[in-house]
TrEMBL record:
Protein name: YeeE/YedE family protein
Top-level taxon of the source organism: Bacteria
Organism of derivation: Nitratireductor mangrovi
Membrane topology: Multi-pass membrane protein
Gene Ontology cellular component annotations, sorted alphabetically: plasma membrane
TM regions (residue ranges): 48-67, 74-96, 116-134
Family named by the database record: Belongs to the TsuA/YedE (TC 9.B.102) family.
Main location: membrane
Subcellular location: Cell inner membrane
Length: 140
């Protein structure tokens, strides 16, 4: 069972949207996490500092939230192996899909990109099917 936190979810969505808008405004770049991550893996491009700062902010934000007194209980109901395998599958999908959910879903849809809208629909169908199979076919 998951808890729905509408105010925290809204605040998180607003922050993600603002970060995407400011990245486009200040650097002319799309806030796709895999593209940003690829820019901090050697050989480093000239614009790697903003990429490292963006990733650091994304990684440190939960800790800042906790220090500010916010706590959101969560559980990871799968094994570490399942997380690693899932991450590898997502990495393959990102490669073949020419982008991730943040690049296509947040930024691409906002720019009314047909390719991004199609990619996001495919992501969502795959996610729905995966949840259905895992919960109702395998009974996990």
């Amino acid at each position: 069972m998951t808890e729905f936190t509408p105010l925290l979810s809204l605040a998180g969505g607003v922050l993600i949207g603002l970060s995407a808008v400011f990245l486009m405004l200040l650097h002319g770049r799309i806030a796709g996490m895999t593209g940003i991550l690829a820019g901090v893996v050697p050989p480093l491009p000239v614009d790697w500092p903003w990429r490292a700062a963006f990733l650091a902010g994304a990684a440190l934000a939960p800790f800042v939230f906790i220090v500010a007194g916010g706590i959101v209980p969560f559980a990871v109901p799968v094994s570490t192996l399942a997380l690693v395998v899932g991450g590898l599958i997502v990495g393959v999908g990102v490669t073949y899909g020419s982008g991730c959910t943040s690049g296509h879903g947040v930024c691409g849809i906002a720019r009314l990109s047909p390719r991004s809208i199609t990619a996001t629909i495919v992501f969502m169908i795959a996610a729905f099917a995966t949840v259905y199979v895992v919960r109702h076919v395998f009974g996990a």
